[in-house]
Each structure stands twice: as C-alpha cells, then as structure tokens.
Amino acid sequence: MTSRPPGSTSGYLFGAVYLLEPEYSWSEVERDVNYMAEMGFNLLTLWPVANSWLARDPSEFVFDDTIRFLDLCHSKGMKVLLQLVGQNPSQEFTPDCLLRPDMLLHPLPGSIWANLNHPEVEALALRYFDSCVAALKHHPAVFGWDLFNESNFRSTDPHTIRKYQSWLEQRYGTIENLNRKWLRRFRDFGQIDPSEHRAIYSVWSSLLPPVEIEAFHAENLTAICRSWCEHVKMRDPDHPVIIDGTSAQLLETDLSLRNCDEYEVARTCDIYGGTFYPKSWGRNLGDKPWELFLYYSIPRGAAVKAGKPYFIDELQTHTQSLLTPGSEMLPRELELCIWAAIAAGGNAVQLWRWRPFLRGYQSTGRGLTLLDGTPGPRGEAVGRLVRSLRRIEGELGAVKPAVPDVTVMLGYRSRLFYDAFLRGAPSHHPETIRGWHRAFTALGLEVETGSIEHLDDRDLATPIIVLPALVSLDDGQVAWLENYVRQGGLLIAEARLNALDSWDRARTEGSPGKLLANVFGVIEGDVGPASSFLWDGVPFKAPFLIQHLTANAGTSVLARNAEGHPMVVSNRYGSGQTIYFAAIQGFAWQSEASTTTLALLRSCVDSTRVAHHFVRKPEMTIVRWHEGQNRIVAYIMNFDSADSEVRFAQIPAMASRELISGAPIAGDKITLPPQSVRIVEWTMTS
Predict the structure, then answer these.
(1) pTM value?
(2) Has residue 43 got a pLDDT over 50?
(3) What are the residues whose beta carbons fall under 8 Å from the beta carbon of 236, sequence distance 6 or more?
C-alpha cells in the first residue's frame, strides 16, 4: 500500500463497479449506495456514463441519472470514477445509428467493434469525451476518468493498413532499407500487405514482417491512448485519467488477440490499472497463487516504471456466466484475492461488480449481491475485510512494497521474435516467465517483473535479474546487462539468450553473443533436444531444447548431462556473478518447484542481499514484504485447504504483532489456518 494518488478521497481507495441499469428503480439505487457506504467503500466506478434510456434520440448523450448518482455518492462521502470507454461502444462514443459498415473493425469479432483508426470514429470519440467532461467535471463527487478499460485494438481495415505503411516508412526511412532487411523487392511502402506477413515465403526470408505488424498494432494502440488522454486532460486538467491493460497480456499464448505493450501504454495516463479474473476462462489462480501474483505484477511493473499509481480496476467477484461451472468465487477465495491485490502493491481495488448482470453473456454472474441487489455471502465477506482494512490502513499506508529481490525481465520485441519462430502456433514463452516467478516466490522473495526495453537505476539496484528466454536483444540492452553484472548484480539466463539482434540477424559468434559470452563465461557450440541432468545429485529436467555450451577457463560448471554437456554454469564477472542454464529452465520450474530443486537455486543466491526475505513455507502460502521507515510488514496468505506453517530465516530486531487481531507475535514461526491471511508488523522499539 502506497501513498494516495492525485484526486483521491481519504483512506485506502476501495469499492466496486456499479452499472446503472434502466430496470433499477431509484429506490434500489439509493439502497445500493447506502449498502456500499455502510461497508466502508469510498470509491466507486460508474458505467455507462451516458444514460441512453433517457435520450430522446439514440445519438444524444444524456447524464441526468449519472448526476443523480453522483449526488447520492457525494452525500455519503464517496468519490466516483467515471468509465468512459468500456466494452460496449454503442453505449459510449459510437451509437449504432451513426455507424456504417466501413466504420467497423475488420475482421469484426472483438469487444470494441468500432474502428478506432477511422477518422469519423475518432471524431465521434472526441465528441463523446467532450460531452461527458463538460457535463460532469465540476461535480464534487468526480474522482477521475477511466478513459479506456481493458485497452486493446486491432484491425486490418484500409485505414489501419495505410497507417501501418506510414509507420514502416518512418521506421525504415527508405524502401531500399526495408528491402535489404526483409529480403524483398517492393517499389514503395504502399505495396506492403500485412495479410501475407506470416506466409511461408515471407518468414522464410525474414521474421521482421510478422514481428513488425505486431509491434505496429501495439504502438498504434499506445498512440490512441496518448491522444485520448491529452484530449481529456486539455478539457479537464484537474482530475486524473486512468487507462488499464488487458490482464497481463504477455502471459497469453497469442499476443495478436489483444496486442498491448503495457509498459508503453502506462506512460500515456495519470494512473495505470489492470483487470483480473482469477477463476474465469478455464483457469483457477487460487490453485496457483504464485501465478495470481504474477498477473498482478506485470501491470504494476508497467505502472512503477512509468512512475504512476497502480489500480486494480476490476477484480472478479463471482461466476463468469450462467453456464460456467468452476468459475464460482467462494467468499474466502474472494477475500484472499483482494488481500493479494493489496499486498501486490495495488493503490486501489475496484471489484467487478456490485450487482450481478441482468442480461447478456455474463447474465447472473459477477456480483457481490444476490440478483435482487440484497447483500449476499460475498458482500458480507467483503464487508468484514473492509472493516479490518479501515482499522489498519494507517499502518499499511506507512509502508510500500519492498524493492524487489528478483526482477524477471520481460522483453516485448524479443517475445515477438520468439512467437514468429513458432509461426502462429500458441506460444509457450509465458511458461518460462511463470516458472521463474514461481521458483523465486516459493523462496519467499520479493519478485517483480520488469522490462528489458525500459531499464533504469531501479533495475541496476535489484540484487537478482532473470532473463527468461530472451532470444533477441539490442546492443544497448547487452551493454546495460554487462554493466549490471560488473557492478555486482546476479544475472540468471537460459538457453538461446541473445541469439538474434533486434533486426532479425543471428549473432554469428553464437548465443549469447560476444560480449555476454565473456559475462556468462559460455558460448554455444551446437544445440540438442530436451535432456536431463543431475545437479549435486538432484535430478533436473531440461525441457524443449538445450545448448551444447563451451565454458571458458575459470567458469564453474555446476551440472552436466549424461553426454557431458554443461547444463548449469556459474561465472564471476567484475563484482558480480552469472548463472547460465543450457535449457529453457523456466519450463521445468513451471511444472515443478520441489524442495530439493529450490534448495539448489537458493544456494546460488544466498550470498546476495536478499537473505532476510527467505522463508520456509508451503508453496500454497505466499509472503509479500512491504517496508517503510522503522517498520516492516509481511502479508502472509495461505491459499491451501490445510494449515500452513511459515518460518522466517531472519527475524527483524523489532517488536512484532499481527495487525488484524492486534496479538503480539514471538519467535520465528507463524501458523495460519486454511485459506486465511495474517499481516505481521515489525516496528522499531524506542
């Protein structure tokens, strides 16, 4: 928990998304607002902002019910975040009566079906923003503008293709330069057709076409977000503008579905957010709590790197829809996910949503209340949580997430190259990210994600950096990594590191390239299929592929496979250290992180500056560290159905107590009942 962002109300920002529905009587709305205020909510998100059911003409924007809702919230001391663009543009900037077929997305499937690159659609969006801001910005209940919820956009219409061609011209300068890099023979940029970029004859010559079209879609979305933010801020400089991403898109197997470079989008707005559905779309992150924190971590990493507050803009409250067994959010699961969001560094939490859906695909799903709007078991559980939060928010507000012990570096462009080699097949790259995050989280360390494209001094101060299958780096990134190790960092990498430069040229000296070969003390001699190896007698899998490494004199080979090839190599370089795995070892960590394998990983990093964060715990228990002046807080969350015991490697020489209960704590051991949370505070004694 960190300091409150601009425009905030008092206390930790907590609430839910409320949808104004024409079926709700006003007495129901008043009842709902009263319930939320009594539960301790102080921030609500409202959608839709315009009340289409009150309009005399379908193209008209009317705000009477919105203003009435704002009046109600103001009378209860609550602020409201107004969501301008959600997932139904007909209720927002493009009423259906104004749309023509040429103004639609191509191909049509998508949650935003209006083509944002069409000049007339762009004009309609700005018209809508102007109407909303002019009508509502002066209301005292307004917190800010949720400008673009789950920001995403992808189209292959003529307007977008022309933008892409212009983007290529700006990027390459001349068609001759592009032809050389792509091994093609275009006469001008207007001849380039992105529909053939994944064709065999195209990728055979160069991976740049499929990489560049995805890079363009991401940059185009960023440009739209930036333009919209600037437009709204010109008309209302007093309230913050929020944009959120698409639930850690780099963890999806196909980036092209919702291509969003979160680290770039976060730079366009005042507050960056994320949306999270832990028990939806066939997954249950409650069974993999380390992965829940990874999902929270990616948009937070983008927000931190951009210097912006981080909001949980949507967090699932209940079932996905009417016919989705397994997506039910039990009250204890919801409480754990909320505390996890706070522990992960969320400056605010907004639950999706207050009342269940009355219509559409999510009908009967997503809600804290029963269908009639009266409190249900989830609402009661959240009420208890918020009452606890309000009692201790002062203590929690005095600390912030600890500087990470480990940063797992993501590479947007490198990921695009990785996927291009798979030629459109579902990517398994996210599995190595999951694996490394899982392994270090199991050791109790503070693990965050970073961006290889946005390296800075904060990264330089991180004790451990992991490079998960970053097959492509540019020369500036390589130089930064060399300097990081030389100055004392511990750098961990895995197979095929830096095999390509950022323009699709293989490093002729072999992976990991000339400079990093000195840093890691290894160079690739050949490659082989999946293997296995023993490390100090402990068996390890080496999945997917391996490199046949040649180790430099003076390096330490920690493990070899049965054929004698080095599989784990440690090297001293400058004041730092490196560890290189000849396989994409994150795949193995993702499938299994056993006590014996983790002990070997821990032995590699014990000498670094992270020993005080090591804990002994079951994997289903997560520990997150927050620190402040003379104060340390540990969020300890047991997601298991059995009791959990946590032992700390080092106990701070401070007085300690459990914050929620206020009970003192002694010793190095803490026990948690099933599916429970304990928040422990250590404070300096006078």
Answers:
(1) 0.96
(2) yes
(3) 133, 137, 145
